Amino acid sequence: MPLLLVTGGAGFIGGNFVLRAIAAGHDVINLDKLTYAGNLATLAAVKQSPNHHFVQGDIGDRACVSNLLATYRPHAIVNFAAESHVDRSIDGPAAFVETNVVGTLALLECARDYWRSLPEAQAGQFRFLHVSTDEVFGSLGTEGKFQEMTPYAPNSPYSASKAASDHLVRAFHHTYGLPTVTTNCSNNYGPFQFPEKLIPLTIQKALRGEELPVYGDGMNIRDWLFVEDHCEAIDAALFKGRCGETYNIGGDAERTNIDVVRTLCRLLDERRPRGGASYEAQIRFVKDRPGHDRRYAIDATKLKSELGWKPRHGFEDGMARTVDWYLAHPSWVDAILDGSYRMERLGV
Ligand code: NAD
Fold this sequence. Notes:
42% of the residues lie in helices and 16% in strands.
């Protein structure tokens, strides 16, 4: 089975990907800086696995990355490592440029040098898969969907830094021939998501009896995908995708933010009823985020027709699984929300 160097594998999507990869029999070297968003509790199930090797380190640390590549000689690199929260990028964009742009450049240079050192047969099989977002495409009107050829128009420091990293990956393929694949995915939800993002934040605040903040008029639309479906799509792109290509990933599940919050309230009303009063009574509309993109929607036709992927979970099913998971794992939330990071400081 292929040996993978996964970066950011203690985060939300990377953690889900690592757990699945180990279960599928892969060996994984997991390089993660363990920022506030990284959590070893996510990896508890593979702590004893001989197939999982965790290394705390920075993708921008060339010596560390080169050493890992020379020591373990992976068949592929899957790059999840990033600063990922739009609100934080508005408060402090520098960290986003540091990891998402400068860090990705360092990782690409190390990958290129390692790939060049490989025997021809192994070099031909090597892949650098870069995990990116649909936010690089900017905001849609009421019609249309993002396609792979949609021009980039990032509107937040987060999406601008991801766009820059995508361009670097593209340039390393065209300039040096590095066998890259880039995926651009819509909003994910599911187990192990840091509770600053809309869905886990809403669940936690609802259960604590706090106000449920919704930006602006709540009519911003996102195209939601269950995280396990994203991980399956990455598998497909990694093992079957064509070098130098980009693949859009989405769940055909457009919902307004207020719809998402109301769905969560309904699922909680069914599972944790509170004396007849719906959790919806806790919803509060708050001042909008600056530069808040109005609508994202993904056309994943290329991935579906070329690589045979399709999502296994509809929105209702995925949301129910997500709520059930958070209700069943309060200790995971406690582990990530340690004393230095309190719920009151979190925003959507
Ligand atoms: P996350 O914030 O939950 O996890 C990021 C992980 O990267 C953390 O474990 C963190 O410790 C690690 N990390 C940060 N800086 C690092 C560095 N310099 N070196 C090594 N590790 C570092 O993010 P996520 O939601 O899991 O997103 C993963 C990737 O998927 C990101 O690249 C993001 O842009 C992309 N993406 C996310 C979504 C989404 O809805 N969450 C959608 C599409 C694409």
